[in-house]
Amino acid sequence: MNDQDIHADRHAEKIRILLADDHALVRRGVRLILDREPDLEVVAEAGDGAEAIAMARTHDVDLAVLDIAMPRLTGLQAARELTALRPGLRILMLTMHDNEQYLFQALKAGAGGYVLKSVADRDLVAACRAAMRDEPFLYPGAVTALIRNYLDRVRHGEEAPEQLLTPREEEVLKLVAEGHSSKEIAELLFISVKTVQRHRENLLHKLGLRDRLELTRYAIRAGLVEP
């Protein structure tokens, strides 16, 4: 492979970024941070949320970095539209607001990360790469806010108002994942084989899975069994 091919490969691997902020100076500063990285490239810029959506329609982008406070359409509104328009597009919110309400709205809108402008030079590049790995990126204060919110909901009995699986389905799932047969599960739980099979069918349907292997993987992710 010659140098030209290597250069072409590197170019092909770049994360293509749509950057939206209504302040040209901020865009320029953020673009400098991103474009100096070998794997990142800003390929489109927008001055507001509506323009960001228009750019996403005409440019091939992998990641949108959106300011929250913008005219016409805010970054939050744009994020909701972009998530519907381009389901595979990753979204990061860039903001000067260390604000819990904005944080929760951003996550609901489909953003995979929340970066403060004040530390963008430190956090933004890592956040872009995390987004492309489908990993959430939150600044430390945001993590604290999420944990506090979760604990408040638990204390007020609001957490998981509609549990996806019933306790019995969870028991069956764990035993299936551990390799027990329907007959063994029936004996362990003092229920009929027919009931076990019905629970298995419900599990597959509820979780959108196809077979025992996928049920086992789900049980590992849910922490029901050791990997």
From TrEMBL:
What Pfam families would the database entry show?
A: GerE, Response_reg
4-aspartylphosphate: residues bearing it = D67
Keyword check for Nucleus, yes or no: no
**Keywords, in A-Z order:** DNA-binding, Phosphoprotein, Transcription, Transcription regulation
Question: Known SUPFAM superfamilies for this protein?
Answer: C-terminal effector domain of the bipartite response regulators, CheY-like
Question: Could you tell me which SMART domains the record lists for this protein?
Answer: HTH_LUXR, REC
Q: Write down the superkingdom of origin.
A: Bacteria
Cite the Response regulatory domain residue spans from the record: 16-132
Where in the numbering of this chain does the HTH luxR-type domain appear? Answer: 158-223
Recorded hits in PANTHER family, A to Z, give:
TRANSCRIPTIONAL REGULATORY PROTEIN NARL-RELATED, TWO-COMPONENT RESPONSE REGULATOR
Q: What is this protein called?
A: Response regulator transcription factor
